[in-house]
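Q: what does this look like with 5-phosphoarabinonic acid bound?
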Amino acid sequence: MIDFDFSNVFRSGVVSRADFESQEGKLDSFLKQIDARNQGFYRVIDDEEMVTDIEAFSKSVKGKYDDIVVCGIGGSALGTITLRDAFANFFEKSKVGLHVLENIDPVFLSEALEALNLKRTLFLVISKSGGTPETLAQYFFFRQHLDKAGLVAKDHLVFITGEKGLLREVADQDGIPTFSVPEDVGGRFSVLTPVGLLPAALVGLDIRALLQGARSMRDAFLSVDFEENKPFQLAVLQWLCSEKGYSNNVLMPYVMKLRTFAGWFAQLLAESTGKFNSKGKSVGLTPIASLGVTDQHSQLQLFAEGPKDKLVLFLQVEKFSYDMEIPVLVESDKTRFLKGVSFQNLLHAENKATAESLTEGGRPNLMISLDTLSLENMGGLFLLFEGATAFLGEFLDINTFDQPGVERSKVLTRESLSECRL
Ligand code: PA5
């Protein structure tokens, strides 16, 4: 279950409840506008054939690999990182390791190669376009080493890609198993397609639970009832705050395992909303990834006394899967407040106190609470933010689903490469 408490936005004085409720009339037309954009991120989660194919493949390779390595970047990497970090034990060397190589730093790649036993490694090359240079470069690097080691490519590679592009051609030629990224699902919205689901299934996560949670939030996202439509309500607050100058969105989970979820959110918000609107004006909300309690000792000073331009979105888990009492080993006035307190109690108290101090300072913040960190709730969170981002696009009068701004850098990269060949 996912609960919401938006009251601190109103208490901060930045947005009134009346302003918030006055947006209700836009819900119906925005839903129609989103429908007309023909996006599949909230439809693909019903694709039973996709799920059975993923499960069948995962079952067929069970026990064959010690390491799963994702070659991919942006939307082809961040969802998997989130899922791995949310559900893996940080310290346990699990039977199957999941590594996401979202960079082309040569030191990083050569260290990865050195650490891997290629005979027991499966590389998932993930690129919707099938032509992203960083991902192709990673693929060529590892393919060369697989070939050199005399390993059969189709036993160590899986491609997750669109219907066209170079990867599709190589797959057809070399018989490499392939999963499809649906044409109507954009990279940063693709975590609940084979892009995020296959790596998750390969390390044993219950992808059906994830999809079930996503479906209940999807129902809320498509609801014309303002009360029920939490993605719309969230977008209303993000938009109204930005209109008042609070256009930076801090996502601050008070859950270690959700640290990288803030990275997924950052890409979604930045690449979706940073655009020229239909009148040619630059618009966008700036994401800031943060972590409670860690960043109370790093960024909080800025949030509390710096420019009044941030909406803080807190994310908490009500009941951690494990908790223990803090053993107060030194009795003194300085430690008495910790007596009989558990780590979870302390974490929640600090979260509440941080939220209250921001509110007192006239700084808007809101709370999203998960009862537990479950796969169902994780699926719900993905859909919550994807849905809110789709609505934000309508408020901002942009195309949420493209990313023309990154094209120029790609062209310049190609040009500059012609001057610096080895
Ligand atoms: O959201 C997006 O579309 C991008 O961030 C892409 O995910 C990223 O550029 C990688 O693209 P591709 O999957 O085509 O390699």
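The pocket of 5-phosphoarabinonic acid is lined by residues 73-76, 127-129, 132, 135, 186-188, 271, 403 (CB under 6 Å). The mean pLDDT is 96.
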